[in-house]
Amino acid sequence: MINQFAYNDETVETRLKTVPSGFEVSVGENIYLVSEIAPGKFQTHLNGARKLVCCVVKENRSYIDIDGMLIELDIPSDDGNMASSAAAHAIAKDKIFAPMPGTIVKLLVKEGEKVEAKQPMVIVEAMKMENQVNSPASGTVKKINFKDGEQVGTEIPIIELELPVP
Amino acid sequence: MSKKLFKKILVANRGEIAVRVIRACKLLDIPTVAIYSTADKNALHTLLADEAVEIGPPPPRESYLDFKKIVETARAHKCDAIHPGYGFLSENPQLPIACEKARLTFIGPSAEAMRLLGNKVQSRIKMATAGVPIIPGMKASGENIFQFESAAEEAGYPVLIKAAAGGGGKGMRIVNRREDLASSVEAAKREAKNAFGDDTVYLEKYIENPRHIEFQVLADDHGNTIHLFERECSVQRRHQKIIEETPSTALTPALRVQMGNAAVRVANAAGYRNAGTVEFLFDKSGSFYFLEMNTRIQVEHPVTEMTTGVDLVVEQIRIAAGEKISDYVLEAKQRGHAIECRIYAEDAENNFLPSSGEILFYQEPVGPGIRVDSGVEQGTVVGVEYDPILAKLIVYAPTRELAISKMIQALKEYKFLGIKTSRKFMIDVLSHPEFKAGNTYTNFIEKHFSDRTVDVVPALELAAAVSTVAMAQGSKARPTAVKQAKGLSPWQTIGPWEIGMRITK
User: Fold this and answer.
1) Residue A92 has what pLDDT?
2) pLDDT of B134-185, one tens digit each?
3) What is the enclosing helix (H) or strand (E) of B151?
4) A100/A159 Cα distance (integer angstroms)
5) C-beta separation of B334 from B230 below 8 A
């Protein structure tokens, strides 16, 4: 059985084999021996080195903790669409979304304005802290969908950009 | 304890501190009433209290900050005291005033002491008069931009804009140049208004790269005012403390006595009762300046508890009930070393953006000298409405060196899945040679970690291997999750992409 996972632009392919002591998973050159010792807790062996890893899979995303380091892997869904909105939103460099639901404190650009990549675009408040959202690319502000003081979710972009033709 | 201190206590807070207070009440055999917003219906504090009352919708102003409703609730549920925790109403004099009118005991200082100390401008002047050193700056709050400009010129840049009602770095801005002054004042006012409901700000000289050292004090109605030594909270990010420890590596026994005495003088000058914390800035020359006094229990109170053996919340309740500070507390000594790490719901690898979502997996570290003060558990949904602090991890060891390694180990064993937390970042900070050397100043994070990156690529194979088994194990519940890849995967056809911003479901 072949599985695929994605992390940013890295893709990792694994092959799963059931063995009496648990599972053998081949990844690249390595074969990991993995057994689930309690829900979410996995004992892993690689070339004699043991490590306890925690992992939960939910909605086409796998959450893994290795010694305090958190890794989230995307799992391509059956219909080929990436289920996570993070992945879906990340493709679009011409749309600027709120990092999380919050309130628009201040828009720093106007429609029609030319902007540079990484330029501060909008300040969004969430959890009582102000977060500055920067432009993902250089371009022109095509449309602004919110006003200062409005509530914003992560579904509708705050700002839409017109990107220069490459 | 033979005599019951209170009949019933309402805990006017949420999260880990509400849990901490409820547990202290249980120790004293005092029933508790929790209040909760609709967002916290299944929160840990709601579940732990003897009674729980829905107080309003998620926005704090309509729930945890609605002191009238809270006092009415306390009366209706036959409480005779309110514990405010930290944040929310804890430093708002309107709560003790409303409590007095309703014949409830407020577990904290008087409204007068709170009003004086809550106003950073007035308390500066008062403490200067009492002979406590203060930072140069405005002697009154700023009304217009011209006042800020002239005060800034007088103090000399860089300057610091601070909320008069402030704390926790909210409503605070460092200004390096005159050009940035107006926009910084504006931003500080906005944040102050949102966080404290008061947009008054003032300006003082910015002391560059000091240490932040504070003293825990306790004062009762029987003439006892004592300090329980220091906590060093220099490791901060965006003025938000992230790691606290005691004792401070910077203090000599003589300085400790000197600052401790100054802290007691501050409490006495303010007519203070109950537990409070006197914060000082400590500069490289060894001079210290009064910063402010926090009129409540502090987030970082556990490190004092670990090294002195004092239960500060129990003492708060006893003092509020008119008791003397316990004898064992009056004789408390500093012993060993304690460190606290604040576990925030934030993505340290992506500009510390707040993280929200359901905690899918949760496991606390255990072992000798390891303490977790947590407001969450597995299944808790972390929202965006409140402060991102989820829990605090505290360790105690005989020496600082051992405490650091114990904390690193405990952070590795503290498991949170489903939301991002700052654990790995904390591990990196604690492992830094300058932290180990005790060279902790308030610019520590900025200086050593401003361009920190974490390379997870070497761990991707292991992560994918475990995920593969997790999917196979969970496939009974979700049969479509594991499927045979055939031919070209849609994943490969979708083209290159990258995560530009953090978006969490």
Assistant:
1) 61
2) 998 887 888 889 999 999 999 889 999 998 877 667 788 999 999 999 999 9
3) helix B145-155
4) 14
5) no
Q: What is the pTM of this model?
A: 0.81
Query: Pick from B455, B323, B339, B352: which is nearest to B392 by CA?
Result: B339
- Within 8 A by CB and 6+ apart from B239, the residues are B168, B169, B172
Determine, for residues A65 and B416 on separate chains, whether the beta-carbon distance falls below 8 Å.
yes
- Decide if B194 touches A, using CB distance below 8 A: yes
Determine contact: B355 vs chain A, CB below 8 A.
yes
User: Which pLDDT does position B468 carry in this prediction?
Assistant: 95
CB contact under 8 A, A3 and B471: yes
Rg of the Cα trace of chain A? 21
* Domain locations along chain A: 2-74, 92-162
- Could you report the predicted ipTM of this complex, rounded to two decimals? 0.81
| CATH of the domain spanning A92-162, picked from 1.10.10.10, 2.40.50.100, 2.60.40.10, 3.30.420.40 | 2.40.50.100
Three-state DSSP class for residue B185: helix
Query: pLDDT > 70: what percent of chain B?
Result: 93
pLDDT tens digits for B270-281?
999 999 999 999
Chain A residues within an 8 Å CB radius of B356? 100-101
Q: Which residues of A touch B465 (CB under 8 A)?
A: 14, 25, 27, 32, 34, 44
Q: Does the pLDDT value for residue B43 go beyond 80?
A: yes
- What six digits make up the tokens of B72? 């009415």
Residue B156 CB burial class (10 angstroms; 0-12, 13-18, ≥19) = exposed
